[in-house]
């Protein structure tokens, strides 16, 4: 795997071009993905079918020439493995039986997580066997705060007010949940690495909703513990953190967690991130809405991002995941722009 451009970026040495991949690059905007997905009545059954996972994980590499594949799965596999009832509603996202008190946490079983998620690790092994030697494989998990948001709210939300209320009103229980999730995520990511991923990413998609007074405790500290756990066992494996919408809290997130790289969302100027993220490698940050809406402007903005990061080790990505209505030709055009940028 020494010839992977993606992994070489973490060594912060000059590269022949900027490596790239796209968050949610395997998804509903691809007809070949929709064809595989149509064979499953349940989204989680889809995620737990190793052969299907292998197929859809590799699809974007064939389409777009990305330098890394990201394991196809979902962050909801952790709550599911803990014993929560998790379903997916078409067009609405995950639905869970929400945690309302300490009594609802009694049946969360950390000891069953790794055995329950064995199909995920089998999928990693299958991907690893077929992945070209110049491509890296990224594993991932939701971060503790974001997982807690869904587990307490029971579904997606614009503000996750129930979670924030729970974190203040039932503080001891909330801290216990964050600690449980921190341990689960650490073990889950280490098991992905053992199965064959070359890098892992933590998705903290709702970190921007953490009250400023709680950011260190509920975002920075759990991330630091997870990174430390991984690095103690696998010191050579890069860990990327993506904390969406955190604004100036990106500084402490990047500098206090030990992350190898930090994903930058579309609301954060790359120039500012470059000046404030410390030694962490940066990844980002084309707006996925722009990518879906205006091909020519997406190409222009791609060049602008690459110019901003010229001479600095960098991984090109989006500021969040590809959205379903994205035209394939727009993604192809951005990929071509990255490959030809000098």
Q: How would you describe what is shown here?
A:
The structure is a single chain. α2 packs antiparallel against α4. The protein has 16 helices and 9 strands. The protein is globular. β2 and β3 (93-96) form a beta hairpin. The strands form 2 sheets. Strands 1-4-5-6-7-8-9 form a 7-stranded parallel beta sheet. Strands 2-3 form a two-stranded antiparallel sheet. It has a single domain (5-340), classed as TIM Barrel. The longest helix has 25 residues, at 171-195. The chain is an alpha/beta fold and 342 residues long. The protein has helices spanning 5-9, 31-37, 43-47, 50-64, 77-82, 113-116, 118-130, 144-153, 161-169, 171-195, 215-233, 250-256, 270-276, 288-293, 295-308, 328-340; strands spanning 68-70, 86-89, 93-96, 136-142, 199-204, 239-243, 261-263, 281-286, 314-318. The model has no long low-confidence stretch (mean pLDDT 96).
């Amino acid at each position: 795997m020494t010839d992977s451009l993606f992994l070489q970026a973490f060594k912060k040495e000059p590269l022949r071009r900027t490596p790239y991949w796209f968050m949610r690059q395997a998804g509903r905007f691809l007809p070949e993905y929709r064809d595989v997905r149509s064979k499953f009545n349940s989204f989680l059954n889809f995620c737990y079918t190793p052969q299907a996972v292998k197929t859809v994980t590799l699809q974007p590499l064939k389409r777009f020439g990305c330098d890394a594949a990201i394991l196809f799965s979902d962050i909801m596999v952790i709550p599911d493995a803990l014993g929560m009832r998790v379903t997916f509603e078409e067009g609405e996202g995950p639905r869970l039986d929400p945690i309302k008190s300490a009594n609802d946490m009694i049946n969360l079983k950390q000891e069953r997580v790794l055995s329950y998620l064995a199909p995920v690790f089998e999928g990693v092994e299958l991907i690893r066997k077929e992945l070209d030697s110049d491509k890296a494989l990224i594993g991932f998990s939701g971060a503790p705060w974001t997982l807690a948001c869904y587990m307490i709210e029971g579904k997606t939300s614009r503000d996750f007010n129930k979670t924030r209320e729970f974190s203040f009103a039932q503080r001891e229980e909330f801290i216990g949940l964050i600690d449980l999730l921190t341990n689960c995520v650490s073990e889950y990511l280490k098991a992905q690495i053992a199965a064959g991923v070359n890098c892992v990413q933590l998705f903290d998609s709702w970190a921007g909703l953490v009250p400023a007074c709680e950011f260190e405790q509920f975002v920075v500290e759990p991330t630091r513990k997870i990174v430390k756990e991984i690095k103690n066992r696998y010191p050579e494996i890069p860990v990327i953190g993506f904390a969406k919408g955190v604004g100036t809290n990106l500084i402490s997130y990047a500098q206090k967690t030990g992350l190898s790289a930090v994903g930058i969302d579309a609301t954060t100027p790359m120039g500012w991130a470059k000046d404030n993220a410390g030694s962490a490698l940066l990844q980002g940050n084309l707006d996925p809405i722009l990518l879906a809406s205006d091909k020519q402007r997406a190409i222009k903005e791609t060049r602008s991002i690459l110019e901003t990061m010229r001479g600095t080790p960098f991984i090109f990505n989006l500021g969040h995941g590809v959205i379903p209505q994205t035209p394939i030709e727009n993604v192809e055009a951005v990929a071509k722009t990255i490959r030809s940028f000098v």
